[in-house]
Amino acid sequence: MEANDHEIVRRVLAGDKEAYGVLVCRHSQYVFRVAFRITGDDADADEVVQEAFLRGYQRLQSFESRSEFGTWIYRIAVNCAVNMVNKRKHEAACRIGEETDPAMQQVQVADTAAGPERTLLSCEIESLQAAAMAGLSATERTAFILRHMEDRSTSEIATALEIAPNAAKQAVFRAVQKLRRSLAPLRVNP
Amino acid sequence: MNHISEEHLIDYYYGEAESPAAISDHLEACSECAQSYESMRRDLGDIKPVSVPQRDAAYGTEVWRSIRGSVPAYEKPRKRSGWSWLSLNWTFAAAATACLLLVAAFFAGRQWEHRNGTSVANVATAEQGRQRVVLLVLGDHLDRSERLLVELKHAEPSTEAPLQAEARDLLSANRLYRESVKQQQDPALASALDHLERVLIEVSNEPAGLSQAKLDELQKEMNTDGLLFEVRVLRSRVQEDANQKRGSADARKGVSIL
Question: How many domains does chain B divide into?
Fold first, then answer.
């Protein structure tokens, strides 16, 4: 029978370092999923996964056995991913004057989804959606992703983002408002 | 008739309304709200979850392999007769050992890179990623130290001791960083960490808050403002190292930069 997460955490804290590998294998897929959804880049998401598990290991002594390891590591990953998004935004702001530099354009790969089977409309929706999401603040974007795509409750979002539940609710609210405004051009009036 | 606010409709849509039955009844009775809700439902329904690239079954093993070398084994818990400096030191020692290994990995990476010159480009991407994560952790230590120094700069005399707790927490890690850095011949970093350690000792040894006299002493005699500047410069340098590692990894992989 497979050991449960709490049992594995106890083993790791008792000196069995290799046991942590079991936790990494067990939880890395969905940690990657949320990291990718927040960062929007698979290389960044991979890095977030590594960082989350590394930080998780270092803080394992503060893990409280009344919570679930999966929820705990998920929360760490969300934090790492938000930090990554903020850092990328900062870097992008610093590079804004270099956009016409041909060398820069070589690393600006914008479209990874387009395929021959896609309709023009779905491409337009996707591109507007991506632009609208990029216009949100890191907290709004993450709160919306956790709410809309990860199906997390307000209290879970608040815990993951280390903000008050009301602030989490407001972040989702603002995100929905901004997204609806941005996607309004796609609405077909009857 | 009072209409339902957009905020409440959003809560209702996500199944978090305080009284869903009342909203449901209202939507049946009020065509204006029903129309607003329908429009919102359609808009949100159009926002599909981002499709996530697949990672194969071996992904977890790869992640573990990439971080395994950077984490030390925890020491088996020992029976303690009570809170004492000795027992506290064991706790700090475990955290400190982790830091030591991370720093050792960081400097080993830097030395290796230095010796191999242009062959750096051949380093595996996974290894670059691991080193970058190690740099991030070292950057974290400097970041936390910077925040403590900023708080110290703006601190009011107090009988509470939150800064002392943070200083104690940073102290043991800092000692090991300093020892490692000395061996790696990085005088700027070693000197800053040495200076930082003296400040941390002073702060953590104040048992009951910081008096105005102590704050003045730290600022004037220990030049905490100068130290803050040094730590900021070093943090930027470590961050640049981390970014360079990422930059070279990205260049090889050809991934996008947001």
Answer: 2
How many other β-carbons are positioned within 10 Å of the β-carbon of residue B122?
A: 8
Structure ipTM over 0.95, yes or no: no
Specify the pTM.
0.58
Any domain includes B15: yes
Q: What is the pLDDT of residues A108-159, one digit of tens each?
A: 444 545 455 555 666 677 777 888 888 888 899 999 999 999 999 999 999 9
Domains located in chain A, CATH noted: 1-109 (1.10.1740.10), 112-183 (1.10.10.10)
Rounded Cα gap, residues A36 and B53, in angstroms: 8
B30-42 pLDDT, tens digit per residue, is 999 999 999 999 8
Do B168 and B247 fall into the same domain?
yes
Q: Which domain holds residue B208?
A: 84-253
Residues 88-107 of A with CB under 8 A from B: 88-89, 91-92, 107
A46 and B CB contact within 8 Å: yes
- CA B172/CA B189 separation, integer angstroms: 17
Does B188 share its domain with B238? yes
| CB neighbourhood size of B117 (10 A) | 7
Count contacts between A and B (CB, < 8 Å).
Answer: 154
Contacts of B258 in chain A (CB under 8 A): 39-41, 44, 85, 88-89, 92, 134
If you measure CA to CA, which chain B residue comes closest to A47?
A: B129
- Output the CA torsion sign for B97, B102, B107, B109: positive
